Amino acid sequence: MTRPRPPAFGALLAGAAGLCLLAGILALAIGSIAIAPGDSFSILLDALLRRSPPADDPLAMERSILLSLRLPRALGAALTGAALSVSGVVMQAVLRNPLASSFTLGASSGAALGAGLLLMTPLAGMSQTALGFMIGMPFAGFVGGFLTVLLVLALAARIDHSLSSNTIVLMGMVVSLFVSGVLTILVTLRHESMEALVFWQLGTFSAFRYDEALLLAVLLAVVFLLIYAQASSLDLLTFGEEEARAMGAEPRRLKPALLLLSSLLTGAAIAFAGIIGFVDLVAPHLVRRLTGPAHRRVLPLSALVGATLMLLADLVSRTLFSPRELPVGAITSLIGGPFFVWIYFRRRRPTT
Length: 352
Hints:
Layout: H1 9-29, H2 37-48, H3 60-94, H4 107-119, H5 124-127, H6 130-159, H7 165-189, H8 194-202, H9 210-228, H10 231-237, H11 241-246, H12 251-273, H13 279-291, H14 295-319, H15 328-348
Helix pairs in contact: 1-3, 1-14, 2-3, 3-9, 3-12, 3-13, 3-14, 4-6, 4-7, 4-8, 4-12, 6-7, 6-12, 7-8, 9-12, 13-14, 14-15
């Protein structure tokens, strides 16, 4: 019995882009004050063309809400979802572990800890300036996330030289809990930085700014292109180091470089948005079930699906109990937790 052929990649890409656009439109339109799609388009077009609104602008309130609050928030959600999903694809391929993600390997917690520690150093004042925040926070998040991943792999190697999937995930969860505990202590002891530190712990896009979105967009574009150029190598790495080496890849060089790039994406996203888990686990699996394992398809589709999921999660977080807002990380965990369990037991199910 032959497997059904996956849908055409072009159709899937167009469909994913359409769903992402629809989620973006909903994110701009829905809220405590509804904004009609036509009005949203008109406001965005005026802003894009730099046209000044009339003195008696009937959409003055809607214009302020959309441009000052909802648009930067939607951009932040979409870019963060895309960055985390691409990072998840790379980690799952490099570690040959379908349960690997920046959250399950502790990179998210490490990135938040790195950002939190920056606020407690003499550089904290610099980090509050626009330039310092845009450079310092992503770098601190990247360092924290990458060092955490290295710690997880080092501990897993000491326990299990074969670096089995279960061992890596177990150590990732243990280290993640430990790092989260350290971050909680920092929040308790550092009252003057408590608000900013809680911001990274909970995960939210409420304070996302255009300059942050621009930096994250540029970083995502550059890193995505670098990773996409290694799509064929990612395919080979999924077969194992020996097989990949036999087919011309260089795992010893590729794996650290790819983990470095994925940690950079995670660190920057978490530094701006806070600890948001499971999107980087859910999106790649959904995409692989549609397209198969080829990373030239998985990478761009995962970015779009991750962006869509994050836009919808953020929409739910701010409208479910409006005017009270839920942390986005809580919404993604409610979805991703059961999904994680399903994947785990599905892998353990005996084949006949």
